[in-house]
Amino acid sequence: MIIAVLLSHGLRSCLRHAAARAARGCRVTGVDFDADFLARARLREGLGDEAVFRTVVADAAQLPIDIGEFDVVLLNSLLEHVPDWRAVVNEAARALAPGGVLVLHTTNRYHPFQGEVNHFPFYPWLPGPIRDRVLAWIMQHRRDLVNYTDYPAVHWFTHPQLSRVLHDFGLEVYDRLDLMRCEQLTGLRLIARWMVGGNGRPARGKFFFYLATTTVSLYARRPDGMVNDSRLQ
After folding, report:
1. Closest by alpha carbon to 170, among 116, 110, 89?
2. How far apart are CA 223 and CA 233, in angstroms?
3. What is the block-wise mean pLDDT of the chain (233 residues), using blocks of 10 residues?
4. Which of 20, 96, 102, 197 is 20 to 30 A from 173, comparing alpha carbons?
5. 3-state secondary structure labels for all residues of 116-146
6. Where are the domains of the chain?
7. Are 44 and 20 in contact (CB under 8 A)?
8. Which one, of 74, 40, 86, 38, lies nearest residue 58 by Cα?
9. Looking at residue 88, what is its pLDDT?
């Protein structure tokens, strides 16, 4: 299996994903705009072999034309940090092989609590202009609230919003509720069984599901035989 991991400004969890996939025999391509970070990534255990872990210095919003096609493209905690997130999704969709899957995890505007801005419940619920002014003040006066990053989260997403964009790129879109089975829900999660689809019935109550989960996680598949013309968009 050939996997592309579009790295998120040096996010360590992305490297863990890359190392875990490489350990399972996958060929992994790591993409980041920071060449020094990619050089350090190669020092990580399991990522030293160029035949297993290839690095590409590039902007996720403008991947090299010849980057190739991948069975899986992983966007983990990236979209919320980039200026042009639609361009990143377009490039990720372009890089999918027929039958390939885009795995996407990002911020969830419906959930009142989040880990992007410390000690600020309901931050995602602020109107966009107010949220932007608050973040500008934080970046000038209280950078500790965003763990001193130069790339704080600037986008907050909803499941319907991202699903529509992915559908527009011709992808088949699923979320965790769509892929979940009732027997996987145990303990307190049993109360969510009514949401799970099955036997031709779609999942229900997704709004309530996303009130309780911190991220939007989507799995978008490029249909077999689909002509990849996203390069023209």
Report:
1. 89
2. 18
3. 67 73 87 88 86 90 93 92 95 95 95 93 96 97 95 95 96 92 81 82 89 94 75 42
4. 20
5. CCCCCCCHHHCCHHHHHHHHHHHHHHCHHHH
6. 59-116+156-224
7. no
8. 38
9. 95
- Alpha carbons 205 and 194: distance in angstroms, whole number: 8
In CATH, what is the architecture of 59-116+156-224?
Answer: 3-Layer(aba) Sandwich (3.40)
The structure tokens listed for 211 are: 């009130």
Closest by CA to 114, choosing from 209, 215, 189, is: 215
User: Which residues 6+ apart lie within 8 Å of 86 measured at CB?
Assistant: 165
Angle between helices 85-94 and 159-168 (to 10 degrees): 50
The Cα 67–Cα 88 span in angstroms is: 14
Q: What are phi and psi of 7, to 5 degrees?
A: -75, 145
pTM to 2 decimals? 0.88
**Cα–Cα distance measured from residue 24 to residue 72, given in angstroms and rounded to the nearest whole number:** 14
For residue 1, give every residue at least 6 positions away whose Cβ sits within 8 Å of its Cβ, in sequence order, or none: 21, 25, 26, 27, 71, 72
Containing H/E element for 205? none
